[in-house]
Design brief:
Elements lengths: L8 H6 L1 H10 L10 H7 L7 H11 L4 H12 L11 H4 L3 H16 L13 H10 L8 H25 L5 H12 L13
Helix pairs in contact: 2-3, 2-8, 2-10, 4-10, 9-10
Amino acid sequence: MGGFGVIDLDKLYSHKNAFGFFAEHLVYPEKLTYHPNSLAASFSPEDPAYAMVHTYWENMQKYSLDELQELYVHTFDFHKNATLYMTYFKFEDAKERGQMLAKLTVMYEMFGLNMPDSELSDYLPLICEFLYAAEWIGDPRAKDSFNILMAVLEDGTYHLLKGLEEINSPYYPLVKGFRETIKASLLKEVANHEHD
């Protein structure tokens, strides 16, 4: 799966606007979802997801709002392999999934996000909203907490991306862009080979 590795919390923080965009575009589309200013306000040409998000944006401009809403439901509600619940792929409904959901809920609350009663804590748009809104810089609890979150995201988005690819979904470049944004936030490995 090409694991995400160790996250650089400062780099992750620098992509907050991108996570806000991902959160908005991974929920049921509304009229303002595709407001022309939202793309430019969230990504600069230097962003790792820039090209992928632009591809996604251009694809979505071909649809009416009614068609976008139908596409969303058809994609995420009717395809088991394209679920937005990140622990479902690994645990389905096993007891371990409940334990992971509880860990994520505690993490959100630790960083000031009140969990909506109507949503599970592994819902990708909620995770994106958390990454957009939470303040973790300088918090000593962040490293361990975010390692758990990154493990959930690595596994869940890998399977989600494969599911979207199978159905040739226009959401594919959006989720690919999300993964690239996370990967750009990893600590760079220092090579142990020193040759002079």
